[in-house]
Design the sequence.
């Protein structure tokens, strides 16, 4: 048994196609990949909003905003 | 190597040029390492940090010519595990062999030697970043030769050679060096760090951790970007670009030529291009997430992603490579801070985590994902399996990495050679140069004042 379908290299390479593991799961992998990608966007939008809310709560007062103009 | 026919000539010159191109590309890895090490160090240590890493180039090069390359060809059997020392093959690659010079009958050894040599620089350079700002350069250069022309090339003979005993008995598979470069260098760095100790001020008396920030985050980021670029050369150099079944001489039948891994198992340049980019992407996405957008860790996570997937990137599906890359970045980030908190290890650039832990994990993951795939085109070799990969990871990280690093560092420490004096560490390694520079600038300024 082999996850790639290749158990020996005693073969003619002209007759060999895909050799990645778990062939047949490409569709499932695609869905998992899409979920990871989409989940990342959801996380990053939420995280950024939270990050900005936190920064405003800490430094968003009028005096700090005025001073920030001179700092950076 | 004969070039009797046009096909022989084209294949030979193509292969020669192929490896040659990887060498300047891999040079960029070293440029990147120097940039990010200097960027991560404080201003008072810049020039010493730069020279500590730069001198890896000549020292590892000459020692790799003198004996490192010989080791690779001499020790695939252990020796005395699957056979004795391979005297004949080794003699053809010894420093005094006619192949180690201009020789119209051998157009490959020089470029093949250099491709391996650039891996040696990388192994030593990985260690260099972890120990900045407190190691004696002289001691580091001894350690660089030990890993660059000793430990890593022994591991290559054992686990990165078509006839290596680890491949034959364990079914060890590590196509793009998760273990043979990264895990060993990470383990070696950890062994040295354990003896060397942290930078002054890194940990408070109560054990609290202080963040010693890079003086120039831009330089660190660009350095890591350049390492990504050089990494392409590293990957390409791990392949044999074009070989016939007859040239392999194993079980493969027919007449179809192929690219192979170092084990002479078929793969393609296309496969590793997919997988390099997808594992890099998975690593960067997860590293950005776990580090909450930290630039240094996002770039390092990209590296950890590639490193973790490297053992099996000749075979993975690209989405598998991406998911393995995600795991690599997560493991590297979490392990770095856990080890720092628990054992008070000061790894200045996260080298042990990015290379060591991600490489170690990548070997084990490959054991499961590639279970049962033939590790070799030759008969009688074990197939890839989780136990073989786990033992391989332990050998790379622990036996050939951590142990030599720890023991040689201990010996250097015993002679008072390992760590710079406390006073030098406080004033900075470049204190005298910076003072002289200030004085020279003052002198010129004074002279100009006298002119107006």
Sequence:
């Amino acid at each position: 048994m082999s996850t790639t379908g290749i158990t020996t290299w005693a073969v003619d390479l002209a007759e060999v196609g895909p050799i990645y593991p778990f062939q047949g799961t490409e569709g499932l992998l695609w869905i998992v990949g899409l979920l990871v990608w989409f989940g990342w966007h959801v996380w990053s939008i939420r995280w950024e909003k939270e990050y900005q809310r936190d920064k405003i709560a800490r430094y968003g007062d009028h005096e700090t905003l005025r001073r920030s103009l001179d700092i950076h | 190597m004969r070039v009797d026919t046009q096909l022989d000539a084209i294949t030979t010159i193509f292969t020669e040029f192929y490896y040659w191109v990887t060498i300047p590309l891999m040079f960029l890895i070293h440029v990147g390492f120097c940039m990010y090490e200097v960027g991560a160090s404080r201003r008072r240590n810049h020039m010493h940090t730069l020279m500590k890493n730069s001198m890896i180039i000549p020292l590892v090069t000459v020692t790799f010519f003198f004996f490192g390359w010989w080791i690779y060809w001499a020790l695939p059997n252990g020796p005395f595990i699957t056979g004795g020392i391979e005297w004949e093959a080794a003699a053809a690659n010894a420093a005094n062999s006619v192949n180690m010079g201009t020789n119209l009958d051998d157009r490959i050894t020089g470029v093949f030697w250099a491709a391996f040599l650039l891996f040696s620089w990388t192994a030593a350079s990985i260690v260099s970043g972890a120990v900045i700002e407190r190691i004696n350069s002289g001691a580091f250069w001894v350690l660089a030769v030990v890993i660059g022309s000793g430990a890593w090339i022994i591991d290559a003979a054992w686990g990165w050679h078509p006839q290596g005993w680890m491949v034959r008995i364990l079914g060890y598979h590590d196509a793009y060096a998760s273990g043979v470069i990264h895990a060993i260098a990470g383990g070696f760095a950890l062994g040295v760090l354990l003896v060397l100790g942290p930078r002054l001020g890194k940990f408070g008396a109560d054990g609290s951790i202080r963040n010693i920030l890079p003086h120039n985050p831009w330089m660190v980021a660009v350095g890591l970007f350049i390492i990504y670029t050089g990494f392409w050369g590293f990957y390409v150099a791990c392949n044999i670009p074009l070989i016939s079944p007859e040239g392999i001489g194993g079980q493969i039948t027919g007449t179809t030529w192929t690219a192979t891994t170092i084990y002479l198992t078929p793969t393609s340049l296309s496969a590793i291009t997919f997988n390099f980019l997808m594992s890099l992407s998975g690593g960067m996405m997860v590293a950005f997430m776990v580090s909450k957008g930290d630039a240094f860790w996002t770039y390092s996570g990209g590296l950890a992603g590639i490193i973790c997937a490297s053992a099996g990137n000749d075979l993975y599906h690209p989405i598998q490579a991406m998911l393995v890359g995600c795991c690599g970045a997560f493991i590297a980030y979490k392990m770095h801070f856990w080890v720092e908190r628990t054992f008070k290890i000061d790894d200045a650039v996260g080298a042990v985590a990015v290379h060591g832990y991600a490489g170690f994990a990548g070997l084990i993951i490959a054991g499961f994902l590639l279970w049962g795939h033939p590790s070799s085109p030759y008969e009688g070799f074990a197939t890839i399996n989780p136990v073989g990969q786990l033992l391989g990871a332990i050998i790379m990280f622990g036996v050939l990495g951590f142990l030599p690093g720890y023991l040689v560092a201990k010996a250097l420490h015993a002679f008072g050679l390992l760590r710079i004096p406390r006073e030098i560490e406080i004033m900075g390694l470049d204190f005298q140069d910076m003072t002289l520079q200030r004085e020279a600038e003052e002198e010129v300024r004074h002279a100009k004042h006298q002119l107006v």
Remarks:
- The longest helix of chain B spans residues 6-40.
- The two ends of chain B are 71 Å apart (CA to CA).
- Chain B has a mean pLDDT of 96.
- DSSP finds 17 helices and three strands in chain B.
